[in-house]
Write a structure and sequence with these properties.
It is a single chain. By secondary structure, the protein is of the alpha+beta class. The protein has 4 helices and 7 strands. Strands 1, 2, 3, 4, 5, 6 and 7 form a 7-stranded mixed β-sheet that branches. Strand 4 and strand 5 form a beta hairpin. It is globular and about 45 Å long. The model has no long low-confidence stretch (mean pLDDT 93). Bound molecules: zinc ion.
Amino acid sequence: MTNEKLIKLAASVVKSKKMGDNTSGDVGCALITEKGKTYTGVCIDTMSGMGFCAEHAAIAAMVTAREYKIKKIVAVWKDKKRKVHVLHPCGRCREFMRQINKQNMDAEIILGKDRTAKLKELLPYKDDYSQV
Ligand SMILES: [Zn+2]
């Protein structure tokens, strides 16, 4: 699957919904696994940090299907003019992907229309716990 198609798939699940004082669904994520299956998810923003990123939802769908290895992943947000913007995964999502399966360090993270990086490039100091 091309990066453009995965970006479009992520954008297809973005449906912003006001829930009380919070907004959910304004970021969408799509990933493809080594087996070639795709999974999507949206963010849920709640107070007190109980919400989660769209990447978490897509990864939860993947794990529900008993898959653990991400080949490629992207998260997107749409502005008021419905223009799609690719978002970089936050630090928590980067570590989450690593902890789901250490082989995900080779997952390709889509950072823009023509820009990607391996997770290991975005999380370079994994397992490098030095003693003080
Ligand atoms: Zn995140």
